[in-house]
Amino acid sequence: xxxxxxxxxSERHHLVKLVREGISVSEAARTLGISRKTxxxxxxxxDRWGVEGLSDRSRARHRQSHETAPSxxxxxxxxRKQTGAGPRQLLFLARRQLPYDRLPAVSTVxxxxxxxxxxxxxxxxxxxxxxxxxxxxxxxxxxxxxQWTVDFxxxxxxxxxxxxxxxxxxxxxxxxxxxxxxxxxxSTGPVVRSFERIFRKRGxxxxxxxxxxxxxxxxxxxxxxxxxxxxMRQGIEVCRSRVGHPxxxxxxxxxxxxxxxxxxxxxxxxxxxxxRRFGDFxxxxxxxxGHEALGMRCPGDVYVASPREWQPRPAEPEYPGHWEVRRVxxxxxxxxxxxxxxxxxxxxxxxVGLEEILDGIWRLSYRRSALCxxxxxxxxxxxxxxxxxxxxxxxAEE
Length: 398
Known about the structure:
The chain has four domains: 8-54, Arc Repressor Mutant, subunit A (Orthogonal Bundle), CATH 1.10.10; 70-115; 140-302, Ribonuclease H-like superfamily/Ribonuclease H (Nucleotidyltransferase, domain 5); 324-397, no CATH class. The chain is built from 13 helices and 13 strands.
């Protein structure tokens, strides 16, 4: 036979039953093991509120001394509906409008948004280290103009049925948005002109990080394109993500998420109207939106232009005296060892340097970047991949 389960509420019901049966309050209190004062309290509650009076009451305070003011709550809700920002951003925006009012904590703002139905329950995601994978070649910038990131936000169709390809450029360390240009295509010419305008206004970065799509990368040696060659002519290092890994450029992709939400849902009717919306987004991101990684400062408060100036006609590259120097032909080939080796058409007209590192093995470089290796041992030059050349170098050292 199982044990009888009991609780405080059922004991209070038992107390009322005993008293109704004619047992004195003192005897009922002794039977239940409570004081007469406690017995009288629960009997009085039962007489006033009935059975509901025997249940436990909430011990929460009736009034909170630090309760969020209704005006602050209304402002937070209005800002959420207007901007879609999170709790920290809402507090940053509210502080600008209410500099002297008491504002709640981040957790309180989250509760306010949840009660108003403005927050969806987050989906659970595993955070195991084995699921995250390698971080790739991404090297985050630590100071302004150390690294710029560039990408095309996925194209979309405007109201007049024309296509818009937003070109976005951002300073990686300060999150300063340098450019959002709604281009009609991803061809080389408009991209080069956009970067020329940015370089004239903001100077040159140390390196630029991009993905492997056109027009930032090509299909030849080093995956060079005319755009990346233009960067290299200015002394800029070119970095790329792994193929099919957008997470190698995380800060830029996060900016794209906000860009899409604020400017492309729905798109404008014309390209000029869409570009004005992009301009408003750039101003908001740089001057009005505080960033948690910057101590809730705006990117415009910390970004400074680069002291390196853009050169309309960069000087020809210089190589060590013992190197062979060749000019890449229009066909993308260089002449060496009595034969022609195809490099890439992106370098046509540029000087490249050739250094013999083993008997018949040459390393080809453009400015500061080593691009490939050439094997002349069989008579006609053959382009070798880096792993094959490294294997030959290891065998030579042994």
